[in-house]
Amino acid sequence: MVALNRKDVVVGIGSALVDILIHTDDAFLRRTGAAKGGMTLVDKPFIEKTLAMASNRSVIVPGGSACNTIIGVGKLGGRARFVGKCGQGRMGSFFESDLKKNNVMADLLKSPTPTGRVLSLITPDAQRSMFTFLGAASETCPEELAACKFNDAAIVHVEGYLLFNKDLIRTALALAKAAGAMVSLDLASYTIVASAKPFLEELIEKYVDILIANEDEAEAFTGYSDEGKAIQALSEKAAIAVLKVGDRGSYIASDARIYRIAPHGNGNAMDTTGAGDLWAAGFLYGLSRGYSLEKCGAIGSSCGYEVCQVIGASIPDEGWERIKTNLEE
After folding, report:
1. What per-residue confidence (pLDDT) applies to 105?
2. Burial per residue of 179-214, b for 16 or more beta-carbon CB atoms within 10 angstroms, e otherwise
3. CA 45, CA 205: separation in Å to the nearest integer?
4. What b/e readout covers 147-160, taking b as 16+ CB neighbours within 10 angstroms?
5. CB proximity list for 78: less than 8 A, separation 6 or greater
6. Are 80 and 70 in contact (CB under 8 A)?
7. Rounded to an integer, what distance in angstroms lies between the CA atom of residue 220 and that of residue 215?
8. N or C: which end of the chain has fewer CB within 10 A?
9. Of residues 287, 298, 240, 296, the one with CA closest to residue 8
């Protein structure tokens, strides 16, 4: 019988969002005013207007950075929980049922406000540029986060998008540390890092154990575009630092050592939506199981590769089978 009080759960806190994915070209991207590779907060009418302008068909899937990561942990066989707020309507029900289908404990708050959504514009270079309507997700209040949500947590993973809600992210990180969990923070977007850097530095110094960034986010945070200097600077901020460098692999720094993690697969990508989120899923799953940092990075690399072979952040069953086969080997 499984002991329910053991501390091996990976808890994700973030925005409960639905992803709307459209393949488009750079000309359309310029018409929308999107920051290529970045994220811009908008209202619901803006997303509806942009959808009406697009000629290509959209694909709708559950999303949100921390949610993508936690679903990955659940698919790998880890104990996973997602905490967030969604609407009471059809989109909210779709979001909740998908979590449960993917072996995730859904700890969802409900609101009459519509479920948030992200319009991701995917250009031929596989870059995705995002417009986000937070909807119900923006209404989560610090007092709605109960300490019991973290009692069994080995790791609490927080998405950088929560930096827009300072009181909420402070409360979440404080509760996680009080429960004895490691705190993981994904910087999420270079646009967010640039706009919230002083507050971000304060949070990392006080709470964060695992700091995860891609090249653009690392440069915005550290000022370094050079990979070696960037990972070194990140390593000075947290016990475990991660720098993802796309199809060139990743770096993990801890205890004055830097590990170079090779990329998985052939480097081709159909869509990079969720690549960083799923990399984090493999990495955090490995940490929750006590694997070495090199093995954690290899699992992350495998997950990141597989999600780039499909549209959206949902790896199909055959992809998960390949990941698990690699894990066993």
Report:
1. 95
2. bebbbbbbbbbbbbbeebeeebeebbeebbbbbbbb
3. 38
4. eebbbbbbbbbbbb
5. 8, 10, 285, 288, 289
6. yes
7. 9
8. N
9. 287
> What's the pLDDT score for residue 100?
93
Cα 275 to the chain's mean position, in Å? 9
Q: Where are the alpha helices (H) located in the chain, listed in sequence order?
A: 26-32, 44-53, 65-75, 90-101, 166-178, 190-195, 197-207, 215-222, 227-235, 275-288, 293-307, 317-328
3-state helix, strand, coil in the chain (%, to 5): 45, 25, 30
Please answer whether residues 323 and 302 qualify as being in contact, where contact means their C-beta atoms are separated by less than 8 angstroms: yes
Distance CA 42, CA 292 (A): 41
* Contacts of residue 284, Cβ cutoff 8 Å, sequence gap at least 6: 10, 69, 73, 155, 157, 184, 210, 296
Domains present along the chain, CATH in parentheses: 9-15+64-109+150-328 (3.40.1190.20)
Q: In a 3-state reduction of DSSP, which class is residue 117?
A: strand
Low-confidence ranges of the chain (pLDDT < 50): 1-5
**303 exposure class (CB count in 10 Å sphere: 0-12, 13-18, 19+):** buried
Give the Cα separation of 192 and 165 in Å (integer): 12
210 strand-pairing partners:
184, 240
What would the two tokens of residue 194 be? 């640039």
> For the purposes of burial, counting CB atoms within 10 Å of the CB of 5, is it exposed (0-12), middle (13-18) or buried (19 or more)?
exposed
Token output for 225 = 């575009």
166/199 Cα distance (integer angstroms):
8
Please answer whether residues 255 and 3 qualify as being in contact, where contact means their C-beta atoms are separated by less than 8 angstroms: no
Residues 40, 119 contacting (CB under 8 angstroms): no
Q: Helices (DSSP H) in 103-255: which residue ranges?
A: 166-178, 190-195, 197-207, 215-222, 227-235
Q: What is the dihedral of CA 309, 311, 315, 317, to 10 degrees?
A: -90
DSSP 241: E
